[in-house]
Structures are given as structure tokens and as C-alpha cells.
Amino acid sequence: MAGCRGTEMSNGSEGGLEFNPMKEYMILSHGQQIAVAVLCTLMGLLSALENVAVLYLILSSQRLRRKPSYLFIGSLAGADFLASVIFACNFVIFHVFHGVDSKAIFLLKIGSVTMTFTASVGSLLLTAVDRYLCLCYPPTYKALVTRGRALVALCVMWVLSALISYLPLMGWTCCPSPCSELFPLIPNDYLLGWLLFITILFSGIIYTYGYVLWKAHRHVASLAEHQDRQVPGIARMRLDVRLAKTLGLVLAVLLICWFPALALMGHSLVTTLSDQVREAFAFCSMLCLVNSMVNPIIYALRSGEIRSAAQHCLRGWKKYLQGLGSEGKEEVPRSSVTETEADVKTTTGPAPRTPGCSNC
Length: 360
Description:
- The chain is mainly alpha-helical.
- It contains 13 helices and no strands.
- It has helices spanning 2-12, 30-59, 62-65, 68-95, 103-136, 141-144, 147-165, 188-225, 234-268, 275-285, 287-300, 304-322, 339-345.
- Helix 8 runs antiparallel to helix 9.
- The radius of gyration is 23 Å and the shape is globular.
- The N and C termini lie far apart (54 Å).
- 38% of the residues are buried.
- Mean pLDDT is 79; it is low at 6-19 and 332-359.
- Belongs to the G-protein coupled receptor 1 family.
- Residues 331-360 are annotated as: Disordered.
- It comes from Apodemus speciosus.
- The chain crosses the membrane at residues 34-58, 70-94, 106-129, 150-171, 191-214, 246-268, 280-301.
């Protein structure tokens, strides 16, 4: 309960500026501080640039803004951009420069970090559900996932993420409840509740993507049987398998980046942690930043339509810089399709030759 005694001291000081409980969480050595500063700066900057590029490509194209799939990807990019900036800055200030804040400011910062990462996982879940519906119910996908419903789902997800993340700022702090050994002022019962919520989100992601992987695995046998023949649905099977490769990569990266930190959080609820374990947690938590850095590559840069939009923008900027013409059209070339769009188009047979699809 040393943290509680320190909290009482800080609350009794003027403005609560002598925030003593934070000191016992600053356990990194000088060499570790340098490593944290370098890694957070490089990964945070790269992640921010990647995600802001994806946001620009989606928001600058009226065609992409109308599609629910890209609203979810845009939400993911926005959450990962905020997570990159907020987490990297606050993590370096806390562990490297030992920045001291008042109780309210600190809880606002940690709540903001929690909200951005929670919204990132929530956006991943919505993207997973979107691809699940597009794959399993292609004839009715357009009616099921409208732009209005997508916006409502995103609003609900962001509001719920904010409410859960800022509960400590609203008063759910430790003392007299046991304090977390990993986060100052955060009670163990709140940490347990947040872990359960994140587990629910991860379970939804794993289930939906797992179903797609299972279905694609069944199609592999069919592809082998009809390899030399043109039969209805063969193109759809090939797209299922190609999509499964992307989803397999998604699950692998998600588990690698999040499991170590989540496992240590759960471990901290049942036992006392040594300084070595808390130091390991500091570096494991940066893996979540890696996930934000990799998400744009997996979800956006693997999309043919966003790649076409990027090429279109680059050509427009090149012409503008050379003074050869205007900025070019805003629309993305209609010949490009996303994997989910192609899934819907090939539901009833081989992929048609006509470009464009309004279902996804």
C-alpha cells in the first residue's frame, strides 16, 4: 500500500503536483531508457506516417469514403495514428524523462492511451465482422452493411472505448482498492475488467477470422479437383484462399504483439512482480505500437484499391510539381477492386470482365 500512502501525500499537497506514487514505477536503467527512447521515437514516427497516409487516401477519395469497408479501415488507421503519437510521447516522457504530473493529468494521459488502443482493437473487430459478412452473405451484404449502419457501429465502438478507458479519471482509482503493480493509480479490479473486455474483442476477432480460414481450407481441396476446369465458383474459391493468407497474417501479428503484454497484466493480478518483470512489461507493451505500425501494411497496402489510389495521388503530385497539368481527378480508377469486393462479384461464377462493384 505504499502507492496509497504516496497518493494521500500528493492529494494533500497543493494541486497534487508532488505525485510521489509514480516514482516507484520508473524502474528502467539508463541503457534501457535509451533503448525505449530510440524504439518509441522510430516506431511511433513510422506508424504515425503510415496511418496518416492511409487516412489521407481514404478521406481524399469520395469513392472510398462511401464504402463501409473503408470506413472501418479508416477508423483503424485513425486509432492507430492516435495510439502511436499519444503512447510514444507519454511512454518516453514517463520512463525516460521521469515526467511528473498531477493526478488528474496523469489519469487523463493513461486513459487516452487506453482509449486509442481499445479503439484500435475495436476497429479490428468491426473489420473482421465486415469481411465475415461479405464472405458468408455476399448476395445480401449491401443491404446488411450500409454506410449509415457502419457509422453507427463506429460511433458506438468509440464511445464505449472512451467510457471504459476514462473510468479511472471519473473516480475509479486504487486506495482503498489494491493498486496495480504495472500502472500508477490504476486498481486491480479495473485492470481485470478491462482485460475481460479486451478478451471479448479478441475472441470475436479470432472467431470470425478463424471461420474464414476454416472455410478457405475446405476450398483448397476443391481447387485441386477443378484446377484445369472452369466451373462456377472457382474464382470465388481462389479469392477465399488468397484472403485466408491475409487473415492468417493478421491473426499471427495480433497475437504476437498483444499476448505478452496481456499475459503480464493478468499475471500481475495474482502475484507480486519483481523489477525485472516490470522492465520486461515496459518493452512488451511497445509491441502494441508495432501492431499499430503493421496494421496499415496488412489492411490497407494489401488492398488493390488503396494501392491504386496511392499511385493516382503520386501521379497527380508529379504532374503538379512538373507543371504539366492539374492535380487530376479525385476518383480512384474503377478497374481496381478490393479482396472483399472481388469476393462478392464472383459469388455466382467466374469473375466478370466489367470493372467496379458497389456491394462492398
